[in-house]
Amino acid sequence: MSSETLDTDLLARRFACLGDPTRLQVLRLVTAGPISIDAIARDAAIEPSSVGAHLEALVDVGFVDITVHDKKSVVNVAESAYSDLVEAATVVAARGQIRDTLGSLPEDVVLRRMNDGDWDAVRAIYREGIDTGTATFTTSVPPMEKLDAQWLPDHRWVAEIDGLVVGWATLSPTSSRDCYRGVAENSIYVGSAARGRGVGKLLLRQQVQAADAGEIWTVQSSIFPENRASVALHQAVGFRIVGTRSRIAQLEGQWRDTVFLERRSGTASL
């Protein structure tokens, strides 16, 4: 957020706008992508009339836009304000305790531990994620043996719909040094056919709950800034944005930035 582009009055109004916890929750839902007022009300568990008041405040400071499609209002992040929105929301959110604001979750998705019979499905979903160009710097799916050695055994989860694996989540240690034994890097992938159904929500919630119970005191993640839905999803379970790592690495010959996030456990026994 730059003083060259934002006057001090607008800065003050933006931070004041995000001082309301419910409004911040509404904002996080909007950052995941275009959403209707009814969907915001459902996921935030508040009345539609209250949603309108919060959106009016967010529109007033330039954070969101409301458009009408097929006689229905659609809410989206104001394109010119996205980076400012993320930074302001991060500062405000960092003042409070970890909160889960995932909203409604699917009932047709089953979570379980990953087993040896899942490798083909897991690697196929990994390939689909790589193909999006917004998920990872990895350009080819690593061999099963490498992944098995990399991922923490007690922190591997898969999601199933109708008996088919449609997503997975894992943790990897960030260092072999004992002082960092409770710090892990997360990975979460959802198959293309199951995206938008809340699979990622369930996997990420399971991941952080298991991390808290398993003496993992910090889970970190690096996400391409273009992947707004993933950034918003992580924030919804208590991750905070530490900063942006500019031109941190190349993907297919192009320098890319990443948003670095972390979630500090509130329950792990240190």
Keywords:
disordered N terminus, Arc Repressor Mutant, subunit A, alpha+beta, three-stranded antiparallel sheet, seven-stranded mixed sheet, Aminopeptidase, 9 helices, 270 residues, globular
Distance between the termini: 35 Å
- Report the helical percentage: 25-40%
CATH fold call of the largest domain? Aminopeptidase
Class of secondary structure makeup = alpha+beta
User: Spans with pLDDT under 50 lasting ≥5 residues?
Assistant: 1-6
- CATH homologous superfamily title of the largest domain: Gcn5-related N-acetyltransferase (GNAT)
What is the chains' assembly state? single chain
Give the C-level CATH assignment of the largest domain: Alpha Beta
Total strand segments: 10
Strand and helix order:
HHEHHEEHEHHEEEHEHEE
Write the CATH architecture name of the largest domain.
3-Layer(aba) Sandwich
Radius of gyration: 19 Å
Distinct helical segment count: 9
**Percent of residues in β-strands:** 25-35%
Q: What overall form do the CA principal axes indicate?
A: globular
Counted up, domains total: 2
Overall mean pLDDT score? 87
Q: Tell me about the largest β-sheet.
A: 7 strands, mixed
